[in-house]
Specification:
The complex is a heterodimer. Chain A is α/β, with parallel strands linked by helices. Helix content of chain A is 28%, strand content 27%. Chain A has six helices and eleven strands. Classes of the chains: A alpha/beta, B alpha+beta. The interface between A and B is medium-sized, with 21 and 27 residues.
Chain lengths: 255, 841
């Protein structure tokens, strides 16, 4: 299997997310960066499929040059080839521009090395959460696509993908090549080993430049909602808390 | 939850290991109205305690640090929260193996059982170690891992249950309020987001946040947040199978500055090898902003790669372990790597208890509580950790960051006792620096000042006196044979010493006599022009300082103290000023420079540039006069710390260079040479048996034991008098002695030279430590050559039964034993010219 996984470098914030003074970005001054969790699962899923069926995992990201960190992380957990499409403007491209950049890269990668059997995206990115890039790429490539995937089985002709719905699963059979949007929970991503981390330092990263079309959506500003302060009152510990709990339940009218 | 208080006696800010232990000890010592605040949640508010590795290697070369560590281990053990698993420091280099001999010496001194191991013996204890990459190990069975969060919780709860303490988590301090106090601002209240607490005393125990809190009150706590990287790697079957948290000794891979510590099925790998990563306090995220906790900053993996490779070299299986957790953990570093404890110098009743490791936390809690309760700690002398030790130029971020950047990678480094700083040099220089530069002075830093230690221009004297070099590189590091040559030249001719680093205070005013009598042991009501050499005591009767006082006029005294003591002494003298304005205190260090001229021809040299009669009859030993020297107004003080006739000469800073030039010009006829502080501070004083603050003089010892008690006690009251009188009436259990080494040959057949760094034990002929009736161990406090008597001398307190002259003992240096003989004991410890005929010639 030849698998492409598209990932995004995103901040790793705490419970409070600050925005920059110009309101255009998340203030990442003291934050580390990570791969969007859905995409981390997509890399893991691809690594597991390749371990089982052979092949290779290419990981592609569109982002600043620092996104090399996320590609090397992918290298440390089993990915084999890496593409960084540079966007050093400091502002994310909009979903269509991002999709265009990815489509252009895919075309070149497939021209060089053959078609990808599977292209995996995270269901949505952890920061902007647009849910769009994967679908736009699939439509442009004319390949079947399903989002929200929490299970992938590779068969002889294609893949079976499972999507969680209330009370059960929807099961999709797709011919390959196909595009899937993977959701956190599909697996438990491995941590890099020390050896994996050290080996990832040697991974070759293919850097690509691209021009994006003008006239896209532009972010005007980020709005930080009022913080809701939740006061937690500890009613007590062990059985001592029981009378207060009863009082509270009575007050709420459930007893 | 109790109602937020509006008043308290004491507010402690910070519920990490230090703050929690401090409130526990304060409660035990009778403090009844304490409030503990932290802006984070409990039990882990998000400071450095929460992510600490929690292991303790008790052996260190510093007595103060070892005392704090052993006391902490005692407290952890008492609470049942210590797991004694043993620990091994492994060496990859010959230099480190040498360092292990030094560690063995320290371990012997402090009574910490330790052994040196071969690689195979290390492997017996740690079967998964690659013994082929190591040369050996230093094994300490009492190395332990502790539960610092639970210890803090229990200490805090003990105080709560006693009804002495209220605790408020998730409470952020917004301001620390002060008002005009006796001599400086004093604490009045702590303002928080939950309300305002009026209080008398505030303790800042906030680790990396401490500088910000201090700044709220207008004070400084000189530390910087710094990164220590660590990663939790695993699981590994070999560890999982043990079904224990710690089945194997903790390993410190000393030459790669890393450690490997089992945590159940995983291994924690930590490093002090990465580039120094210093942060400013404002860069630390809040609890809400932090992805983990505020002091668990995002891991910068690139900085850790080399450490991973080296860890895999030592323990191959680590390479296959998953990195489950990795952080840039924040800890507190200070410019000299010691804690910052005690009352702040800027604000009355504002205390610092910061820059403390887990291994010292409970001990620091007790120490600061004793300090707050009794005026000074009992169980160890804290002068190396006293926050007052820093001078103003050492309290800002430029100095702090420069020094921390320099010493971070020395955390596991081999630091020579005489090692000098490379950064922030040439910041504080005296008026003759251009002249001493021209004479190729080799400078040591003394309290920030550049002080010539020897002069390369005196190289010719080495041949003239036939001074031999030292074979072992360690002994000759930061040392020169020129010093011994300068010493002998001074004894034969005359030498000039740059003493610009002297700390000079003047106190004056109508209330000055009772004030100064109150401050020091010896009688100060002497004639104008008289001098007083005197101990300064703590309330407990132990040494706080020793210094010289000159009576300049009826109502003005000059206090002269050492470059390493000025900060602490200034704090103490200012702190005790009467609040009625009857005494003024001035720090004149930067206004007055000091030159010293000693040797048999000193008077002859100076007589050529003054009309003042310098003969003993007209200008007796111990007196001070105003003298015109080469037309420059000076005060000359006939005194000697080196044992020869001569003077300390004080002049206005702007005249210092002209004075130096004038003396050097006329001194040529007598072969006047510049002489460095190695002679002044070590060989000269050692031959005379003069004591040094911080070496022989510490809080644990009193003037009687130090041989500094005068025949009579003055009538006036003074700090420590009651205890001093008790000491005079008690049977002596130890006394300061001077010893000589009978044979300096080491086992390899060449001469070795103990450093006198404080960690070399004096032992009985059967190799047992000497411990006096008060539990104090005999150790070398100063060591050095005595070229004029042809001996290598040591100073040490010995149990009274071992003090007799001629007693044969041994001293340990670099894990080898050398025979020694007691040379002198009591008040007069001079081995050279014991009758002081030369000084009074």
């Amino acid at each position: 299997m030849r698998i492409l996984v598209c990932v995004k470098r995103v901040p790793a914030p705490g419970s409070r997310i600050n925005v920059t003074p110009d309101s255009l970005n998340v203030d990442t001054n003291h934050l580390g960066f990570t791969t969007s969790p859905h995409e981390e699962c997509a890399v893991e899923e691809a690594a597991q499929i390749v371990e089982q069926h052979g092949g290779g995992v290419t990981v592609l990201t569109v982002g600043p040059s620092e996104a090399e960190e996320q590609l090397r992380y992918a290298a440390s957990v089993g990915a084999t080839a890496f593409v960084l499409v540079s966007n050093d403007t400091g502002i994310d491209w909009d979903p269509q521009q991002t999709a265009d950049a990815i489509i252009e890269s895919i075309a070149e990668l497939e021209a060089d090395q053959g078609q990808f059997d599977l292209i995996l995206f995270g269901n949505e990115s952890a920061d902007s959460g647009g849910h769009q890039v994967g679908i736009r790429v699939a439509v442009a490539l004319g390949r079947p696509a399903v989002n929200g995937i929490k299970g992938i089985e590779v068969g002889v002709q294609g893949v079976t993908a499972r999507r969680e719905v209330d009370g059960g699963y929807e099961v999709y059979s797709l011919e390959i090549p196909a595009v899937l949007g993977v959701k956190e929970g599909i697996n438990l991503p491995r941590y890099p080993t020390m050896k994996g981390r050290l080996a990832s330092k040697k991974a070759e990263i293919s850097a690509r430049e691209t021009q994006v079309a003008p006239g896209a959506q532009q972010r005007r500003r980020l709005h930080q909602p009022e913080e809701t302060v939740i006061e937690t009152e500890i009613l007590g510990t062990s059985s001592d808390a029981a009378p207060k709990i009863v009082d509270l339940l009575e007050e709420l009218g459930v007893l | 939850m109790s109602e937020f208080p509006s008043r308290a006696r004491c507010v402690v800010i910070g519920a990490g290991i230090v703050g929690n232990c401090l409130v526990g000890h304060l409660s035990d010592m009778g403090w009844e109205d304490i409030v503990l605040l932290d802006k984070g949640p409990l039990p882990n508010p998000g400071g450095s305690t929460g992510h600490a590795s929690n292991f303790i290697f008790p052996c260190d070369h510093s007595k103060e640090i070892v005392d704090l560590t052993l006391e902490s281990q005692r407290q952890y053990e008492k609470l049942g929260l210590q797991n004694t698993c043993g620990g091994i420091e492994v060496a990859r280099s010959e230099e480190r193996m040498e360092e292990f001999k030094r560690r063995m010496t320290s371990a012997k001194c402090w009574g910490i059982p330790s052994t040196l191991l071969s690689p195979a013996e290390v492997k017996d204890l740690v079967p998964f170690i690659s013994e082929d990459v190591i040369l050996g190990g230093f094994y300490t069975p009492s190395v332990s891992a502790v539960d610092s969060l639970e210890t803090g919780t229990q200490m805090r709860k003990k105080a709560q249950e006693a009804g002495h303490l209220e605790v408020f988590a998730n409470t952020e301090v917004i301001d620390i309020e002060t008002a005009h106090g006796t001599n400086k601002p004093k604490i009045t209240a702590v303002l928080t987001d939950k309300g305002r607490i009026e209080c008398e005393t505030v303790v800042i125990a906030c680790g990396v946040w401490s500088p910000r809190l201090a700044e709220m009150a207008g004070a400084t706590i000189p530390l910087t947040p710094a990164v220590h990287q660590m990663a939790d790697v695993g699981p590994f079957d070999v560890l999982v199978e043990t079904q224990q948290e710690l089945a194997y000794p903790i390993v410190r891979d000393m030459d790669t500055f890393c450690y490997e510590r089992q945590t159940a099925g995983s291994m924690e790998v930590g490093s002090y090898a990465h580039r120094p990563i210093l942060h400013r306090v404002d860069e630390i995220p809040s609890n809400e902003e932090a992805a983990l906790s505020p002091t668990e900053m995002p891991f910068t993996a690139d900085d850790f790669d080399q450490q991973m490779e080296e860890a895999i070299e030592l323990m191959e299986f680590l390479g296959d372990g998953e990195i489950k957790y990795a952080i840039n953990g924040l800890l507190s570093l200070t410019p000299d790597a010691n804690p910052v404890l005690g009352p702040t110098v800027e604000v009355e009743n504002l205390w610092s208890a910061a820059a403390v490791w887990i291994k010292e936390g409970p001990g620091v809690g007790r120490l600061v509580a004793e300090w707050m309760t009794d005026g000074y700690p009992h169980f160890t002398d804290p002068h190396g950790a006293d926050i007052a030790r820093f001078y103003p130029h050492q309290r800002n971020v430029h100095h702090i960051e420069a020094r921390c950047d320099e010493h971070f990678n020395k955390t596991y480094g081999i630091v020579h006792p005489r090692e000098q700083w490379a950064s922030r040099r040439d910041v504080t220089v005296g008026p003759v620096k251009s002249r001493t530069d021209a004479l190729d002075a080799f400078y040591f830093e003394a309290g920030g000042w550049e002080r010539p230690h020897w002069y390369e221009s005196n190289q010719d004297l080495v041949d003239a006196y036939g001074i031999q070099g030292r074979q072992h590189e360690w002994d000759s590091r930061w040392w020169s044979p020129i010093s011994d040559a300068e010493h002998l030249h001074l004894r034969d001719h005359v030498g000039i010493v740059d003493l610009s680093a002297f700390q000079i205070f003047e106190v004056s005013g109508p209330g000055v006599l009772p004030y100064i009598e109150h401050m020091v042991v010896n009688k100060c009501d002497v004639a104008v022009g008289g001098s007083i050499y005197t101990p300064v005591l703590n309330p407990s009767g132990g040494f706080r300082s020793d210094l010289t006082i000159l009576r300049l006029t009826e109502s003005r005294f000059r206090i002269i103290t050492g470059a390493f003591d000025g900060g602490r002494d200034e704090y103490w003298f200012r702190h005790n000023l009467p609040g009625d304005g009857s005494v003024q205190f001035e720090n004149r260090t930067n206004a007055i420079c000091t030159l010293g001229l000693w040797g048999p021809k000193a008077v002859e040299v100076l007589a050529t540039i003054t009309e003042t009669d310098l003969n003993q009859a007209a200008f007796p030993y111990g007196s001070c006069q105003q003298v015109l020297l080469a037309g420059l107004p000076t005060e000359m003080f006939r005194v000697s710390y080196v044992g020869d006739s001569g003077f300390e000469i004080y002049a206005a800073m702007q005249h210092g260079q002209a004075l130096w030039d004038a003396i050097m010009e006329v001194g040529g006829a007598c072969d006047l040479r510049p002489v460095g502080a190695a002679v002044y501070g070590t060989s000269g004083r050692l031959e005379k048996g003069y004591r040094l603050m911080g070496a022989e003089l510490e809080n644990e010892y009193n003037p009687v034991e130090a041989g500094l008690a005068r025949p009579k006690v003055k009538a006036a009251d003074f700090i420590g008098k009651a205890e001093y009188l008790k000491a005079r009436d008690s049977d002596l259990c130890a006394q300061l002695c001077v010893l000589s080494i009978d044979d300096l040959n080491c086992e390899a057949g060449y001469l070795r030279f103990p450093m006198g760094a404080g960690n070399e034990p004096v032992l009985s002929l059967s190799g047992e430590r000497l411990v006096d009736a008060k539990g104090r161990v005999s150790r070398v406090t100063t060591a050095g050559n005595a070229p004029s008597v042809g001996k290598y001398l040591l100073m040490a307190y010995l149990p009274i039964e071992a003090c007799d002259r001629g007693t044969k003992l041994q001293v340990m240096y670099q894990n080898e034993l050398y025979p020694v003989t007691v040379e002198a004991t009591g008040a007069n410890l001079a081995v050279f010219d014991p009758d002081n005929g030369r000084m009074k010639a």
